[in-house]
Here is the input.
Amino acid sequence: MTKMMYRDAVLTTIAEEMERDENVVVLGEDVVGGMGTPGGPEAIGGIWSTSTGLFGKFGAARVIDTPISESAIVGAAAGLALSGKRPVAELMFADFIGVSLDQIWNQIGKFRYMFGGKTKCPAVIRMAYGAGYNAAAQHSQAVHQMLTGMPGLKVVMPSTPADVKGLLRQAIRDDDPVIFLEHKALYGVTGDVPDDKDFTIPFGHARLSRAGEDVTIVSTGLLLGFCEAVADKLAAEGIGCDVIDLRTTSPIDEETILDSVEVTGRLVVVDEAPPRCSLASDICATVANKAFASLKAPPQAVNPPHTPVPFARELESAYLPSADKIEAAVRKVLSYR
Amino acid sequence: MTKMMYRDAVLTTIAEEMERDENVVVLGEDVVGGMGTPGGPEAIGGIWSTSTGLFGKFGAARVIDTPISESAIVGAAAGLALSGKRPVAELMFADFIGVSLDQIWNQIGKFRYMFGGKTKCPAVIRMAYGAGYNAAAQHSQAVHQMLTGMPGLKVVMPSTPADVKGLLRQAIRDDDPVIFLEHKALYGVTGDVPDDKDFTIPFGHARLSRAGEDVTIVSTGLLLGFCEAVADKLAAEGIGCDVIDLRTTSPIDEETILDSVEVTGRLVVVDEAPPRCSLASDICATVANKAFASLKAPPQAVNPPHTPVPFARELESAYLPSADKIEAAVRKVLSYR
Amino acid sequence: MQLSREALLRAYRQMKVIREFEERLHVDIQTGEIAGFTHLYCGQEAVAVGVCEHLTEDDKIVSTHRGHGHCLAKGCDVNGMMKEIWGSREGLCKGKGGSMHIADVDKGMLGANGIVGAGAPIAVGAGIACKLDGKGAVAITFSGDGACNQGTTFEAMNMAVVTKASCIFVFENNHYSEHTGFEYAVGTQKDIASRAEAFGMKVWRGDGTDFFSVYETMREVLDYVRAGNGPAAVEFDTERFFGHFEGDPQRYRGPGELDRIRELRDCLKNFRRNVTEAKLLDHADLDALDAEVLEAIEESVRQAKAAPRPTAQDVLEDVYISY
Amino acid sequence: MQLSREALLRAYRQMKVIREFEERLHVDIQTGEIAGFTHLYCGQEAVAVGVCEHLTEDDKIVSTHRGHGHCLAKGCDVNGMMKEIWGSREGLCKGKGGSMHIADVDKGMLGANGIVGAGAPIAVGAGIACKLDGKGAVAITFSGDGACNQGTTFEAMNMAVVTKASCIFVFENNHYSEHTGFEYAVGTQKDIASRAEAFGMKVWRGDGTDFFSVYETMREVLDYVRAGNGPAAVEFDTERFFGHFEGDPQRYRGPGELDRIRELRDCLKNFRRNVTEAKLLDHADLDALDAEVLEAIEESVRQAKAAPRPTAQDVLEDVYISY
Ligand SMILES: Cc1ncc(C[n+]2csc(CCOP(=O)(O)OP(=O)(O)O)c2C)c(N)n1
Ligand SMILES: Cc1ncc(C[n+]2csc(CCOP(=O)(O)OP(=O)(O)O)c2C)c(N)n1
Ligand SMILES: [Mg+2]
Ligand SMILES: [Mg+2]
Here is the structure.
């Protein structure tokens, strides 16, 4: 085990996989940084410091700085993947799927199926998502609900440095396209990470981060920590929460959720995206359908409101699900008779 | 009342509104057709015949044929709308939101909120969606689930020529951006349409197309007809179905759905998009949360599978929700004990 | 024109296969047995073949909605393609892709594409891979005069130049994008190549109705790109003989236009005239090929009609998960 | 240089307002009181002001992530902007937009934009509206040397030409897109204008650190576009004095680069030298303005700090529905 930051887990995993497999290549805006400047390459290694030093180690052929052309970035990843490479492309902000969605949705997500199952597209598209930096409506969004709904894409949302490592390695070695969603506000978080250079976490296996018998809380990413805090607080009161970290939203580990709800009979899903057609509604619907008889209370979603992400500190905090709102939702389902 | 086809209801409404308000302008690929060809303008008036003759009537200044540049089409609509015009832009296929999503999602959907409520963006983005033509994975998709999840957009899915007229007129006169989803397989369907040139249908008001007390069926667009057929068949057996045509998915008429489920206690939602984070899951979750006590059976969704739309006739029919599958779902919730 | 007799016969045969494959589709589609949207490539065969005759399986191509010609020229199996278009589960893509989504990655054919302009960025990636592999292979993207206005095509051109990808942009200017004229939609109203040139690429131009023009032009382009000089672009002026899609009434055409192009701008006729006048091949050689090709196409249709249909269970396969 | 004394004073004041607004932000941001990502425009003031001094409220502009200068030059209220950036509910956008999303549509300012390249298509639409209205108004989009590689920018240029929109593409080439150099990311490695020219537009070039160069160039460009000749493009070579965003360590700069551009390429210094040497204004005039502007900015900060903060309830307003 090594203690490292979430962002370093990203960087280390990429570096290890590049070392292991020469087909792994990295591309994105400023992933080298400093190209064509007086300061020279690597003057600044990516705005999230998730590619620092890769250029020096692996060279310009495998660490490719790109113009501001997200469609071409994802498209190039598609072409690389179809040609036997394992591209790890970075979209600086998840919000930029707006300018590159076709390549994600209609291209890489569909090749395998459209082409009759004979085509592999092992592309990883990493992107930084989420609120917490007051970056406002176009730089703060959670986008997993859209991507989870798109057949052919695997969608990963790690919440800890260890999960980053196991899941990103899995993503790079996977033969299907993987969307890897890194929460901006987690980049600086530290945790123990296994040193094993073959440590992977299979997709579709949720992690039970707290165990209890009274209520099931499901979440991902940044908000998982809020859920844990609520669970810990309630534990002191003798209320037991199962806190389930989904890790991947597609494939989704329905079994773990359903097993838990069968015991608790109560469900709260905490989601950073707006409510309509969200992951929270998806899970609530699945549970209502498949664990109907076990439910003792209405399945409860906690989402931001159906508005763009606002800028000012007070507005963004009011917008985001908070520990308080999660606690209120948990108490609400607990008190349902 | 006049009998007309769904596609003619689109065309007539646009023409009437262009007549009434000189700020209404139309733009899109081949909406004139024949520009820069030996055959000349209007040689072919749009592939869906939803703009035939507009160029002749209103001229090149207000009926603007565009290059194959969907981002620029939606972006131009955004700029026109911010400048006091009422653009009606056409994306030939809804699948092309992939190459123009940013302008829909991060621009027109967000102006009003981001700019503090002082900005109007009365843009209508029309698009033909849905399967039924064996047009395969990139020309057959339902996209309402993505757009419904995007704050700031109103999303309309008419299922009849009359609804086209009332809802499209409302869309054009509305001060917010509206996504207007026309089902390809409905273009040729005929129905009675009110002649009143001010006939509008307010958004967020569902239509009860069949009434019954045993089960609530919610749907939109093409699939609504399948639901009606099932309801009619079951009616003969003495089973009563409320069939609710949502008309708009955002705003959504929760009240009509909840009122119905309070009576029936049973819900089936029929949706043309794949299941994850879908409109069906959205409605099932809402009902599970807000009408929990009324539910006598698990809320049931009917979606295509989580795959791209396949090409071959046999595959596409197996993919799409059919009357048989809807009937099976209804019987399943009815037989739940 | 230093092609061997064998090479000439092969080139002609390739063009003829495309032509007859599609002439036959044009007929069969009218019976209603073939589903979906079909865009025929007839008239442009010299481009696909003039390009692909230079390529090996290591070279990649990325195609368009009008992809049959590119697929066949790159070596996709005729029977597998015909079955695919007929929607059989024995089709090249098991009936899941259809006309607009035929691919055969092992043959270096990375897919037709229903999204106009989507192929160009993919080819840049493939071209980067070619450069990485360092074996002189190239990736080629075909784009129309309509596709050249899509943002993705422009981004791809700049990206290819920046990354020095071994990538070639082949623009097939058939003067129409759907029902709109090239002069209207391409704002420069000049050719496509000059705009590509402004992205920093060396460009070429050729006559897309003349196999030899395409072939000789492509020799230069390929020499340049295989040598590691980065990307290049080439524009071929060409003609499409049928409507945009099957069913198109083509009212945008001028009077007599279709007859004229079928008469004067038919790459097969041009080829035949050239090689027979130059006494490289004689009519009998070509007639024999014609008959052979016709029979091969007939056979592919027989097979397509007899091939097993896909089943409901097939819907759920070939995707990593289907809920 | 046929500007009246009044016009000269106004131009200088406008540039100075932008400069001091941002120099002050640069200081205040370090206290941690201002939230979000802030991109300062300092160094490029001559472009915003040299362009906007020609415009009326009927003319529209569409801006970028680096939008303060454009907003101020187009007449957005200094206090409203400062309050917005401080996140007050009295801000120009009620604290909902912040630095990257300031707009004032009534003033013809259609919005800063956090998405690089997103403004260009919007300006085309505004330019079509201007053409429709037939009053000679224009729509202007500002784009950087990075934004000029985004597909939307290319599509917009072609679309503007095709629709003959009254639209002007102003490219501010400050040689950097984030931490990447212009020479790397713009594949042509020539200027931006020549690529724009290949789209079929007439283009101009000017020195973006010299107000008079910008102003005189824009006079020509505007005469051309207002006369109904369709779109045009202009590139201004300019400098950004601060990092890409606040907090950027700027290791991509060359040794002494920042000192050099502050010394030789400062549009305010250049302006002052020009007008005083030409005896059009004297130092005292400008010093008086400097003091006045400093006080106005100080006042805006006082107001921003004192202004009411938004509340949780405000989140749910200004959207047609919030579930
Ligand atoms: C993104 C996108 N926009 C529009 C279409 C609809 N469409 C299909 S083909 C076509 C015209 C393409 O013209 P061109 O590139 O010249 O190719 P050609 O059809 O002439 O071979 C259009 C508009 C599409 N498939 N994808
Ligand atoms: C679509 C998109 N891609 C990337 C970014 C991140 N980003 C913000 S500004 C910027 C650089 C822009 O460079 P340029 O256009 O030259 O403008 P400048 O910053 O120099 O004013 C980048 C990459 C973004 N905001 N939007
Ligand atoms: Mg064409
Ligand atoms: Mg720049």
Summary: Chain D has a mean pLDDT of 97. The two ends of chain D are 57 Å apart (CA to CA). DSSP finds 13 helices and seven strands in chain D. Residues 179 and 219 of chain D are 33 Å apart (CA to CA).
